[in-house]
Amino acid sequence: MADPPGCCSTCATCLLCPYSCQWITAKKEKRKGLRTTKRDCSWFFFLFFVFLFTLVWLYFAIIILNDFHNFNEFIFRQKKLWLDWSLVLLIATAVLISYSSVLLVLALCLQLCGQPLKLHWVHKILLILTALVVAAAFTGLGVKWAEEWKSARVSLQATGPFLHIGIVGGMTLLAWPLASFIYRTRNTGLRVFLLLVYCAAMIALYLAPLGITSPCIMEENQLPPKPALVGHRGAPMLAPENTLMSLHKAVECDVQVFETDVMVSADGVPFLMHDEKLTRTTNVQAVFPERAALNSTAFNWTDLQQLDAGSWFLERRPFPTVQSLSPGDRNETTKQKIPSLGQALEVVKQSNISIMFDLRPENHSDYQNFVNVTLGVILQSGIPLQQVLWLPDGFREDVRQQAPGVQHVFGRKRLKDEKEPVLHVNLPYQDMSSEEIRQYRQDNISVNLYVVNQPWLFSVLWCSGVSSVTTNACQVLKEMKHPIWLLPSTTYFMIWIVVDCVSFLVIIWAFVLMKKCSHRRQPAESETDVLLTKINSLMQE
Which CATH class is domain 228-478? Predict the structure, then answer.
C-alpha cells in the first residue's frame, strides 16, 4: 500500500508505534505484507463504537453532577464513608475518553497516511475493558439512580442545538478518512455500504433540528420572570446545612423561601434535621457513642444541644466551596448547634422570608402528635401564617383547622378530579415537562422544582416559566441576570441552514480532493508494478 503524497516516513512510523505497539519503519521493504485486513477493520469499528459509548457516558457524567451530592449522602448512609465521588467519576471518565480518543485519532491519521491499522492486542484488551466499565456504569445508573434518565431529557433541551452543531462538525471531519478509505479499498460492497450509511447519517443530522425543541428558543420579550430561589436546608455550600448560620447565609443570597426538615425530640421540641440519624451532620459518635445509631427523635432537647453541628462541615468538605470560607466563617461554623424550629421561625420572621418544611419521619407512630406540637410552635412564634409553606401530607385537615392561614404545598401533580384547590406544588425537576410548567403557570399554580444547582439547568427552567427552584447553590444562581443562552427562532433557523450548507460543501470538497490524490498515486503505483514485473522476469531468466 503506497503512501500518499505529504505523508513522510517519520510521521508514519510515529503513528504506527503507539497504535501497533511496535517500532515499524515506514520503508516499503520493511513493512512488506502489512495490510489492513477485515479483522483490523472490525477492530477499528469497535474502537469507534467504544469512543462514542464513552462520549455518551461523559455527557451523562456532566449531567448528573447537578445531583451528585445526593449520591455522596447515600454512600455515607450505607458505608459511613464520606468522599466527593464526583471527582472519582470525572477523573475515571476523563481517562477513558482520553484513551479512546487518542486511539481513534491515531487510527484516522494512519488511514489518511495509507498505513495498516494493526491494533495491538494490549489495546484490544483495554478497549474491551473500557466498554465493560462504561456498560457497568450505565447499568448501575439505571438500577440505583433511574431518575437520572429523566435528567437527560431535560439536558437535551439545554444542549440540543449545540450538540447538533458539534455532531455535524464531527461527522463532517470524518469525511476525510472515509473518502481516503473508499478510494483505496477494492471491495465494492463495503464501499457502497459505508457510503450509504454515511449519507443516511448526514441526512438525518441535517434534518435533526426539525425534532429539536428547547424552551430557550424564544424571543427576548417572551422570557418569563426569573424564578425565585428556595434555599435547600439554607445555603449548604456556604455553611453547615440546617443551621442558623446556613439560614443567615441564605438570606444574604436573597432567597425568598428557607426549605428545611423538622423532627421532634423525645421531650417534644421540634428541631431542624434532615437525616433520621445524627451521625452525618453532628459529632454524636463522640458525645454519645453508645446511642449514635438511634433515631434523632430518641434524643431529648438537652442532649441535642450538646452536639456540635458545624465542625463536620470543615472536616468532610461536602462542597468545594468550603475551601474558600473566610477565617471568620470557619470560626462561626465550629460554634453551630442544632437549632429548634422556634429559633428558625424567629430569623425567618425578622428576615421577611417564608419557610417550607417536611416533618419527619412520616411513618412514626406518634406522627399526629408531631403535627400538633409543630403547629403549636408556629402559632406561638407570631410569624404571619402566609409565610409558612406546609409540605407534609399527613393530617392536612387538622392543619387547616388549627392554622387556616398556612399555605399548603403538594408533592404531587394535580389530579383530574381534584377535591381541594392546589395552588402550590413541589416536585423534582425531572418530573415536569416544559409544557406542564407552562400550563400550570397559565392556571396560576406556583411550581417549585428541586434540587437545581447548575446554571444550565436553571436556565432551562427559567425559560420554561417555573415559579421557583430549590437550590444548594443560591450564591451562584443569585448572580445570573439572564439565561445562559436565548435564541430567537429565526436566528436558530439561520444557524441551522448555515451549518448544514457549510458541512455539505466541506464533505464534497473532501471527496473531490481525496479522489484527485488517489488518481495521482495510481500512475506511480502502475509504473512500480511494471518495473517489479520486469525485474522478476529477468531474475527468472
Answer: alpha beta
